[in-house]
Amino acid sequence: MPNAKLRQMYSAMLRLRMFAGRLGQEQKRSSAGFVSGLEACLVGPTIDLGPEDLVCDALQGGAIDFLRGTPAELILNPNRRLRSAGTLADGGAATRLTVPAGTPELLWAAVGAAATLKAQTSRSGVADGAVLVCYARPDDVPPAVWSKLLAHVFTQRLPILFVVLPQRKPQGSRTGQMSTIALRSRVPGIPVDQHDAVAIYRVAQEAIGHARAGAGGALIECVRFVLEGQKPLASDAISGLGEYMLHRQVADQRWMETEAKSFARRIGFEVVHPTR
């Protein structure tokens, strides 16, 4: 994984968390809560996507708008006129497919859009076509509907990657349930630690590469691994990625602190412990 990509991913994850916290301050409520702990899941699979690719989200709100390309200044002040591109998350450039989140319609719309992408690729004759990354929650639709969706993805070899976000509570013996459903439908299903940004990125890029080449879709299940009978260990994707970068000498502590302080100044956010 290139050093520049590691730094980009760290910055995007950090900015997402801090901007969610800034919205929480502005609106006098906790806007950070719904993305906290999901930064690696939300950034890793889409950070390399281009404008020809599509993404649809299971979560909505200003923090997700920011991650998907809306300048921070326009979200904080919709009436403001920008003289430049504004402050961006730099978390990928995919085109958003806007469908109501948390509904079966989102998943079926994503499957339909992936079929359109496949047809466009077939007509153009290019080697690597566009892909769609679709975020979902396990309980967005019943397991039987998931099975039907995934079976269709397999049969049609659609260029789609489902990224299933974790449940709010550890699932224990149910961890990996969605991956099992995918495998039964003959679609690759891979459970990945929701706090391991590097692992999520690598698994997503392999799946996306296969989809671009016409090999069909896949499903990544972001999970929180917990051993039976033991309390969950405290972990954090941003600090974990930071430690990995320090170990590899990709960046130093000064660079990380500068990233946080510089972004905080631009959005008017009071930094206390931005990576915790």
Q: Mind explaining what this structure looks like?
A:
This protein has a 6-stranded parallel β-sheet, with helices on both faces. The protein has helices spanning 3-27, 39-43, 62-67, 72-76, 104-124, 143-156, 177-184, 197-212, 237-248, 253-267, and strands spanning 54-56, 95-96, 132-136, 160-164, 189-193, 218-223. It is of the alpha/beta class and 276 residues long. The protein is built from 10 helices and 6 strands. The protein has a single domain (3-267), classed as Thiamin diphosphate (ThDP)-binding fold, Pyr/PP domains (Rossmann fold), CATH 3.40.50.970.
Offer a few descriptive terms.
276 residues; alpha/beta; Rossmann fold; six-stranded parallel beta sheet; 10 helices; 6 strands; 9% strand; globular; disordered C terminus
Q: How many individual β-strands?
A: 6
Please identify the top-level CATH class.
Alpha Beta
> Distance between termini?
24 Å
Shape: globular
**Which structural class do the helices and strands define?**
alpha/beta
Share of helix among residues? 40-55%
Please tally the helical runs, counting DSSP H or I stretches of 4 or more residues: 10
The tally of domains stands at 1
What portion of the residues fall into strands of 2 or more residues?
Answer: 5-15%
CATH architecture: 3-Layer(aba) Sandwich
Low-confidence segments, given as residue ranges, are: 28-32, 272-276
How much is the average pLDDT? 87
CATH superfamily: Thiamin diphosphate (ThDP)-binding fold, Pyr/PP domains
Rg computed from alpha carbons, rounded to a whole number of angstroms: 19 Å
CATH third-level topology: Rossmann fold
Q: Can you summarize the main beta sheet?
A: 6 strands, parallel
Strand neighbour order, sheet with most strands: 2-1-3-4-6-5
List the secondary-structure elements in sequence, H or E: HHEHHEHEHEHEHEHH
